[in-house]
Write a sequence for this structure.
């Protein structure tokens, strides 16, 4: 087992073959080392790595500072980004997968099976994550800018901590960010790669946007009972459907909140900031009660016309006439006759 990010004697570093013998099945090995620095770390096997990591063998390793006042926060969350490739209906993850994973997890769970991050208003909050998937994840939190406070290499000096609203975490990296939760609400937090907020079956769906397939669906359903085509208006409608699914899989995107389907899966959760929560209260407080007049609403006034597009000479937009040249034909001049062959300025002929 490799202790990712730790300072330790070389023989405790856990690299099979290099610093110790591989651990055979059924055997137990002992690691002993002193924790020489605090921060956000991980551990994972360094033996048959592709198989063992694809099967989910990995963990987090947070070392708290000896001085509890050092960089102290009120709420400290941690999640591991991990991924599986599990064919819908099957049980065993594919282990020879390089990029086409279909279960994008935090702590081996996917939305809506991930707990919300429950936070009291004005709490100092730290969110830490490590990435042991095989791709990078730009983790984006709504509602706040935050300070990146800890990386693989340790604590970022407060004077050097930088502001972000999304922080990319590369493969094998750890990141932590801090913020003061002064804006109550239900703030989404998610990976910004859109296929990472989907569960299995997000792959290889055909694009039927704009296609009226009522007839088609009927005809296909005759030979494939239960067939349901992807939406004509995009994939969002999948989020509100109760589709029949094979056993051992999950809807591609799902989850309901107070305004309807959330249409998410995978690496998504909600930071729930509420007033008056007790210090250790992590219970889901339900959906945010928005103050009157603070929710986006449908416009019901006079019908809006098309935006006008002025193409006059002073508009700044130049009317452009596009011509397409047929390479088989000589180009024609404004008089409709073939143009004389252009002189090549770089040629001496
Ligand atoms: Cu991602």
């Amino acid at each position: 087992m490799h202790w990712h990010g730790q300072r330790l004697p070389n023989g405790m570093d856990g690299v099979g073959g290099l610093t110790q013998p591989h651990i055979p099945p059924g055997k137990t090995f002992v690691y002993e080392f002193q924790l020489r620095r605090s921060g956000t770390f991980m551990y994972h096997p360094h033996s048959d790595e592709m198989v063992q990591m694809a099967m989910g063998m990995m963990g987090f390793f947070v070392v708290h500072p000896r001085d509890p006042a050092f960089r102290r926060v009120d709420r400290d969350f941690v999640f591991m980004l991990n991924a599986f490739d599990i064919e819908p209906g099957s049980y065993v993850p594919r282990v020879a997968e390089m990029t086409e994973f279909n279960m994008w997890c935090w702590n081996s769970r996917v939305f809506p099976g991930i707990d919300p991050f429950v936070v009291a208003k004005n709490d100092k909050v730290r969110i830490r994550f490590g990435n042991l998937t095989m791709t990078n994840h730009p983790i984006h939190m709504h509602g706040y800018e935050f300070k990146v406070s800890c990386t693989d290499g340790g604590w970022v000096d407060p004077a050097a901590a930088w502001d972000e609203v999304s922080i990319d975490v590369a493969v094998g990296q750890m990141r932590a960010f801090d913020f003061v939760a002064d804006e109550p609400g239900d703030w989404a937090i998610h990976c910004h790669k859109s296929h990472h907020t989907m569960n299995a079956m997000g792959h290889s769906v055909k694009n039927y946007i704009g296609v009226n397939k009522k007839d088609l669906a009927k005809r296909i359903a005759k030979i494939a009972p239960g067939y349901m085509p992807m939406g004509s208006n995009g994939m969002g409608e999948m989020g509100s459907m109760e589709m029949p699914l094979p056993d051992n899989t999950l809807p591609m995107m799902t989850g309901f909140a107070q305004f309807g389907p959330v249409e998410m899966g995978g690496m998504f959760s909600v930071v729930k900031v509420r007033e008056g929560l007790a210090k250790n209260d992590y219970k889901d407080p339900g959906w945010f009660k928005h103050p009157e007049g603070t929710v986006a609403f449908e416009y019901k006034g006079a019908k809006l016309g098309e935006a006008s597009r002025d193409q006059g000479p002073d508009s700044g937009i130049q009317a452009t006439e596009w011509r397409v040249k047929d390479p088989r034909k000589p180009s024609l001049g404004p008089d409709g006759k073939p143009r004389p062959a252009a002189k090549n300025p770089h040629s001496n002929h």
